[in-house]
Amino acid sequence: PADAMRSLCRCRAVIFDLDDTLVPTSKIDRAAILHAAALASGDELPAVVAARFSELLKAEPFPPEPSGLDVPAWRTGLWERALSRSSSD
């Protein structure tokens, strides 16, 4: 515990890298998306739903400015769209 506290005292910054700039995270991202799709996809192949979500996320990487949506609400909307396409295809 004392060593951990000393380490915390020396920390001057925390860097968040979520776009593969410093740490390759895209493999982890793909695995997480596929896992979430498996939980939500029902009878549809999870890989198909995951691909739809990934396409939507690539097309709209951030919430539209005038929408006022926070990131969780916006991402939920992307999942809803990816899942609703599965029932209409």
Question: Low-confidence stretches at least 5 residues in length (pLDDT < 50)?
Answer: none
Radius of gyration, CA atoms, in whole angstroms: 18 Å
SS-derived structural category: mainly alpha
What distance separates the N and C termini? 56 Å
Biggest β-sheet description: none
What multimeric state do the chains show?
Answer: single chain
Strand segment tally: 0
Q: Total number of helical segments?
A: 4
> What is the ordering of alpha helices and beta strands?
HHHH
Could you characterize the architecture of this molecule?
It contains four helices and no strands. The chain has 89 residues and is mostly helical. The mean pLDDT is 81.
Task: Give the tags.
89 residues; mainly alpha; 4 helices; 63% helix; elongated
Summary?
It is built from 4 helices and no strands. It has helices at 2-10, 26-40, 46-59, 71-88. Helix content is 63%, strand content 0%.
